[in-house]
User: Fold this.
Amino acid sequence: MYLKRNSLLGFVLLLSMILGACAGSGAPETVIVTVEGEGGVETVIVTATPQPEPVEPVTYYGADLSDIPTLDPQIGEDVTSINYVENLFMNLTNVDVETNEIVPEAATSWDISADGLTYTFTLRTDIPWVRHNPVTGETIQEVDADGNPRFLTAYDFEYGIKRACDPAIGSYYSSVIAPTIKGCSDYLFAETPTPELYDAIGVVALDESLLQINLEFPAAFFITMTPMWTLAATPQWAIEENGENWIEAGNIVTNGRYVLHEWVHNNRRIMTRNPLLPEDLRGEGNVERHVVNVVPDQSTAYALWLNADIDYFGAVPDEELQAQLQQFPDETAQIADLTTFYIAFRMSKAPFDNVHVRRAFSMAFDKQLFIDTVRQGQGIVMNHFTGPGIFGAPPMDEVGQGFDAELAREELAEAGYPNCEGFPPVTLLGYSGQNTLNWIEYAAAQWQENLGCDASRITIEQLPFSELLAGTKASSPDEDVPHMWTLGWGPDYADANNMLGDVLWCEGENRSKRSCNELDDLIIEARLETDPATRVELYRELEDGFFGREGEFPLFPIFLRIQYAPQHSWLNRPLSLFGGQQVYNYIIDQTAQLAARG
Assistant:
């Protein structure tokens, strides 16, 4: 090949680019070029530097049936929101998924005063606040008004925790943390919250790296609460700048293992790794990108899993379960997550203002038959509320009144409705999904069979989970709230107070609108008690008072979830029993995943 010298440079560059684009991971490729110049014919050897083929980042693909209700740590109250907050924000501490022990996260250590009332946390000073640009894909560190880089500080935690005590944000979990943190309840439940009450909340940043939290009482369980999202730091400047829209993609400022790359509401959301996080905080996993699409129903999600379009889904549709177990035994995860599922009553709304009606409906539900038939064995009967492994849980089958159709009929007659005669129409609300529809249809059939209440008297409805939560708040007028609804409560921390106190206490969120009585005195006594053995006995007494033969039954527990979930073999997904799922510890065999995806 002969070229004039003045065209050599451009040709060599072009040829190098072509060779570089074609080269793989093997040895360098060369081409000999002869050029006619002023000094005669010259030979030039062009060597192409091997370039690796572009590789897709390790990506987790999933599906969900609903949008994310919120990404605000102080407001999140549902599983979806909590899962995302867990990965976008750092907490004071974390839960080790292998041991369930509390381990450092933003806090490297903590000291507890001798009286158990003051916790002082020493924080890392190298965790940056970042903002991600969804258009360019760039993640940059936030800076203050003077151009100084922003790092996570004790002042950010002070702001976030005090914000959780603010009634203006309307957070369910405000009532969970308020009884424990000094001054939080005073501000949360004040008729007129004042700046003085806000300043008196017992959370103080002593400097950028020292956070002090003062408690109302020496809560033995407080350290197990510290991984909770509600106690996370939040960026005051970003919230003040963008208001409610501060959580949207492009606006949100975070500090966790991932950043929010995309959030198309009711369609798709994508998280990508935070490249600015210190390496030792990244987690054990290799997932660089987390992509979840919203789908209309479980059957659609399951079809995507069968086609290897998604790696995992939380449940197998009931009608597909036996085929799944037979065809994919090695790709079926058995999830036991300590969530107790139940049907709750609005106690301020007739006829469920009558304890005998509540007992009757509770005792008339055959839980074992429900698990065996409707859930196809996926669960354990629960006659009390607190699941095994949580401090204060009574032994299984020793506390709580289970199924007894004869007793149920006696209770309904005692309420003035023998054989359900004269019983008024009532509503039963479940959250969306065929599995839940199967559940509530079973309940209506049980009450017809065992109480004589014609199923036509029970109006069955379904709503997305977030709408169900909103529609059953204690603050909602009774006329706008269903008589009964389905819910599940997974423990936020490993103490029975989280089940009995945080869910049932009359001065908490109290969706059932139960009136205060001696059971609430026991809840407070159990919180204040420091002797572990005495606390266990108090919790046992509470479980019997709520769910025993003469129990109050603001709700009736049905089953502890043990669920089969389709999970491809290339995904290692450690299960977190408390708080959100830790995507940063997921491991994907990308070679196997991409081969299956074609």
